[in-house]
Design a protein that fits this description.
The chain has 22 helices and ten strands. The protein has 583 residues and is an alpha/beta fold. It folds into two domains: 2-314, ABC transporter transmembrane region fold; 338-582, 3-Layer(aba) Sandwich (Rossmann fold). The chain is elongated, with a radius of gyration of 37 Å. The chain crosses the membrane at residues 5-22, 55-77, 134-155, 161-181, 242-260, 280-300.
Amino acid sequence: MFLGALFLTAANFFLIWIPVLIRRTMDEVEQLGTGQYGDFGSLFDILFSSEAGFILAYNSLLLIGTVLLYGILLFATRQTLIVSSRKIEFDIRNRVIDKLMMLPQRYFDSNKSGEVYVRATEDVSRVREYFGPVLMYTINTFTRAGFILTMMIIVNPELTLWALIPLPFLSVFAYWISGFINKYQLIIQEQYSTLAEKAQESFSSIRLIKAFNRQDYEQRKFEEQSDSYRQKKLRLDLVESLFHPTLNLLIGVSVVIVIWKGGVMVIDDLITVGNIAEFVIYVAYLTWPVASLGYTVNTFQKSLASWERIDNVLTEPVDIRDKDDAAEVSDDQMKGSVTFKNVSFKYPGSDEYAVKNVSFDIDGGSNVAFVGRTGAGKTSLVNLIPRLYDPAEGEILVDGVNVREWKLSELRRRIGHVPQETFLFSTTIRENIAFGVDEATDEEIENAAASAQVLENILDFEKKFETMVGERGITLSGGQKQRTAIARALLKNPRIIILDDSLSAVDTKTEDAILTHLNDQLSDTTTIMISHRISAVKNADTIFYIENGSIIEKGSHDTLLDKKGHYARMYQKQLLEQELAQI
């Protein structure tokens, strides 16, 4: 940065000598015409006389050298300042992404994905403009204006004061408009985030939109957001469109003043005609620094607004993090037992508890299940085990150690989690399955796929494991996506595996095969399953029935049927539905 500023300062130093050389050339040629260097009959004779030719050639060489040095230094400026700003952009973007990866799930629950995306991309690019163009133009404005004003005062202080008369009006105008730009830039960037979120939502749900024939409806909703963005942007564009003409008007007034007052001074023999030309060029040189002031102020305000949004991310507290003395346990030591002690949890901003005063023990290597109505709190409960959220009250123990005392990476590495909403990355099936394991072998990937009962489907594809899937696995069926996600979890060889309703899109035959594998080959792994189908959980060692965030029944399948409570009624209802489906 310092080197770039030095290059730019040197470039402007050479720039100011161009008017000096032009003025000297004009004055010396004019002196030839007055007879100091001899008598000439016409201007043509003056220009092509040997004396004038020498003056023109000598000053032209100086001009060429000066312009050449100015250009070289300006190139060096851009190669230092702009390149440095790109490196700063790289560092800031990495810091933002690193922080976003560290932030707890509650942050993403309370912020729209489109807004988060804009902060990591568009806002970072705008901040980069501060360290690049804004800094470069600011240095350019002050150094060039400083050199020019110094030269103007040296030539004639009085004419300098006359030429600078419009500048106070310019300063007031720039101060007023910068506040307006900053205000509207914040509003526009928030609206842009909303617009990006709407576009992302529409594209990710395009199949649903088409299935319900809601293209026109979604188009109207998008146009409403787009029109709101357009109107706000037009208000800002109106102010920006007035800014540059006003600047040019004030610069034009300065030129007129210089010519008028300079002409009077030439008549009074206070300055030469060359001085007028010199001042006009100086005023022209001031045009870009003053004109860039508008761009600089505008871009600075945009950068400032973006930095405020980025700073909100960087200063966001990380509630779920490792303690300094976090426990590290080897794979052999971890047994997979889970204990909840009077655990309660509610989502940020909610007054109601999603989990209320829950206590239970799960032995390592056992098979347990949670059932209940939709919204009962099953998913909220299991999300507390890998610390996607922390409970508001109570404590959760894994192998007798509070999860807050575990090192996060160690805890999550030993937990295979198949969430309720299956997500596949826009890459190959191989990379999707191997997502949680570094350098997984082909054999390990194939074994995981076979265990999840998806190997045959993959081998039927033309490119097999190299088959590309979309952002949400659009080339795969719902069951294939779920089984691919299960294979991803199994490849980790976890000590605890959580299946959050991850067999809902699988037929009963495939479901039985997957569950049989889990029981036979993962007998030492603690299996925690959430399901709405009794057929998937009836063989579990312990079944917990949850209602309104609390456990109201627990026991084996047969024990719960004997109680004739909520679980038994749920089982009878599903049997009736199966009988009706067969009629």
